[in-house]
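Justification of resources, computational component.

The compute hours requested in this renewal are based largely on the per-chain cost of generating structure records like the one below. Each record pairs the submitted sequence with a full structure-token output. That output is archived, and it is also reused by downstream analysis tasks.
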Amino acid sequence: MQELMKTIDSILQNPYTYLENLSRSKPIMGYSCTYAPVELIYASGYHPARIIGLANNVSLSDVYLQSYACAVVRTLLEDSLLKKLDFLSAFLFLHTCDSMQRLSDIFRINLNFKQFDLILPVKFSSQTSKDYFLDILYDFKSKLEQDQNIKMDIDSLNKAIQTYNDLKANLLKLYNIKSNNPEALSYSDLSKIVRTSFIMDPVEFINISSQIINKISQNQHQSSKRLMIIGSICNHPVLFETIENKNAHIVWDDLCTGTRFFDELTQIGDNPLQSIADRFIKRPICPTKHINPQYRLDYLKRKIEEYKINGVIFLFIKFCEPHAFDYPDQKNLLEKIGIPSIMVEIENHNIFDEQTRTRLETFIEMLGE
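The structure output for this chain reads:
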């Protein structure tokens, strides 16, 4: 297990090096959002790689972005301007929020990446939006075929779907093991494994994650402090260690660097693109999408009951408006059902300060034994 985690750590510490090496054998398409149809990208011959900016000090991007743009957008642009992403052959933008849409325009005007854009529907509840979703997937497929000079048939698409189903199924197994036996695997390691799945060759990742599953204990062991973390991108191993050092355990999350990526598999069938579209509508939606006003509240309540959650941590990147708008209703729900919560806002998703650590430790102590 230790050796396997060393491999995971090595890739996460140097993700661009891993991808640059991989780019010598296949073209890399970067993307930034879990709504990217990775199966379609993979079937086309590209390696899909989720790029989460690494820059701690942001300066070059200030020329192009307002100071209130979130850290995700700012660090991604910073790394691009520093030419750290030159190993990419293409980049896929999904217009999930105003800042990301603005970033797409900046890339198109100022950088030399081959660029694709998917303008996703916001509402998933109407038949019109579902039809539109399917249309843009067909359009994207056509553009990929033209770009790669290939033809993706049903078999090749289903093969890609099965590969990513296997990858996501392994992640779900790891989360369920963690929920049943919180001490079997630290959430810090679990988060690292998930984030590595965004980068690695999927077949290679399936192999290493299967080995990890076989090596960790799957015995039942409950914990009195069972937490759920909610937010967008979370890249803070120190935060997780702070929590678990206080004998508390994150046993589920609602993160786009967590369960939103792998929850719900894609059906194998005669219309793979329809299956991909259906899966995106069935998976837990993020605050940039809408089904009905009660949807995310019902999801939160259901997961609290299912995983016996007794405390919730909202971890928000500063200036992330979709999550900020979502927060008041979720907080009110938690107050009504008697679940304590804390909201932590971080300006740079790679920085974790002492004030935040103290607030978290105090919150966990208040949960009791």
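The first strand starts at residue 28 and ends at 31. The two ends are 30 Å apart (CA to CA).
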